[in-house]
Write a sequence for this structure.
């Protein structure tokens, strides 16, 4: 991003030039969560073969760690994780997630994983309403899980759900206990995305002051308020070495920190080398899109359809003269193509460039005539097709996430239960 334009004019990058004191780790490691948390996106399901394909793509990309799933979930999940672990991948450390249960850890061990990440909730609301456990019970189960994993020769990352909404005295006590038990890495989670960058940095500083960990730290951040990338970068600024991500920002609700955003920000804004092959990010994102069934957002940064698309005459003119005017990321490094859309905001420069691509020239009057005709043509179009597409997509979203209402109640009937009257109304509404 930062650098010099073709005429030698400096393009400033004050992320690096401002002279701010960052506490960067020696190395930043991307921990990919697409195969686990990404698959927890409502309606998403990967077959074992698809998981293996994506794991091989991540390995080729240079991703160092991937959570490949929770083997205890099902036999298919166990099969997938084992297939990946036994594939002989070069770069990827294969991690299996597990609850703080010996049976879950055993399921991971049976898959021959390199690492495990036993997790348990830590906030009062989770302890009271979900786990129905006391703080003492959580500490006991956590220590037991870490010790059990270490005794079986695997690397152990201890994880707490909802870490940042937990009581800090309890967080301190719990994490000190698991470090003493032998945890190799500690993962801190903003499970519902409520942190802001400045507050998160304070929180990490306070965590370090209290726990004084001598092991690696990582973060897992959700995007409920749209700050997952910003908070991930704030954590790196505070010395956190491991960042959890998902391609395209997949995950529960509003998703997780997007892989592509975190990587490109580290590389281009901070100048931190991630070891990721940037030219393979887009094709991998597209494959995740195809297998997950979740379309990449039109305006999604880096991998979205409009990320390198221009229509405005002012912007098009600038990009044609020098791409750095309106493109902070160069398409060549991502192996993408720049696109110009001809519509209401098109100017003569875009028309001229399009004609030049076909070795054609036109007078200024002709260029202006063509541009004006494009504007008139665009504004005459009705919005019917657009509205139809939106309605179709909304209906598709309702009908293709998991089983449909019709399929659900059919399964209920097979179990010997009678479909209630309220369900009949639901089915009728869906049919409409």
């Amino acid at each position: 991003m930062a650098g010099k334009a073709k005429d030698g004019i400096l393009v400033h990058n004050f992320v690096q030039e401002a002279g701010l004191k960052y506490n960067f780790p020696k190395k930043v490691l991307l921990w990919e969560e697409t195969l686990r948390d990404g698959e927890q996106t409502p309606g998403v399901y990967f077959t074992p073969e698809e998981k293996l394909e994506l794991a091989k793509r991540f390995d080729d990309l240079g991703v160092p760690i991937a959570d490949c799933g929770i083997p205890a979930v099902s036999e298919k999940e166990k099969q997938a994780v084992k297939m990946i672990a036994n594939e002989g991948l070069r770069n990827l450390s294969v991690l299996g997630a597990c609850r703080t249960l010996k049976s879950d850890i055993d399921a991971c061990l049976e898959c021959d994983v390199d690492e495990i990440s036993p997790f348990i909730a830590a906030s009062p609301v989770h302890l009271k309403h979900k786990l129905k456990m006391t703080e003492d019970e959580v500490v006991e189960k956590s220590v037991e899980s870490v010790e059990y994993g270490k005794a079986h020769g695997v690397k152990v990352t201890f994880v707490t759900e909802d870490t940042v909404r937990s009581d800090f005295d309890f967080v301190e006590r719990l994490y000190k206990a698991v470090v003493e038990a032998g945890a190799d890495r500690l993962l801190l989670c903003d499970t519902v995305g409520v942190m802001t960058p400045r507050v998160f940095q304070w929180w990490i500083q306070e965590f370090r002051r209290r726990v004084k960990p001598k092991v690696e730290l990582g973060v897992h951040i959700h995007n409920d308020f749209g700050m997952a990338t910003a908070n991930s970068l704030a954590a790196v600024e505070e010395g956190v070495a491991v960042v959890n991500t998902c391609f395209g920002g997949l995950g529960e609700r509003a998703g997780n920190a997007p892989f592509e955003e975190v990587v490109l920000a580290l590389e281009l804004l901070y100048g931190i080398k991630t070891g990721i092959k940037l030219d393979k990010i887009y094709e991998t994102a597209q494959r995740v899109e195809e297998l997950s069934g979740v379309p990449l957002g039109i305006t999604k940064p880096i991998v979205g359809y409009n990320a390198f698309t221009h229509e405005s005459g002012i912007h098009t003119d600038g990009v044609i003269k020098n791409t750095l005017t309106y493109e902070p990321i160069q398409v060549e490094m991502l192996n993408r193509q720049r696109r110009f859309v001809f519509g209401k905001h098109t100017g003569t420069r875009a028309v001229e460039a399009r004609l030049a691509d076909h070795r054609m020239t036109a007078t200024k009057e002709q260029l202006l005539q063509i541009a004006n005709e494009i504007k008139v043509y665009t504004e005459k179009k009705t919005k019917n097709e657009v509205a139809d597409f939106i309605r179709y997509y909304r209906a598709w979203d309702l009908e293709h996430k998991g089983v449909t209402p019709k399929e659900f109640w059919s399964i209920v009937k097979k179990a010997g239960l009678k479909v209630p009257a309220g369900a009949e109304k639901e089915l009728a509404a869906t049919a409409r």
In short: The longest strand covers residues 93-99.
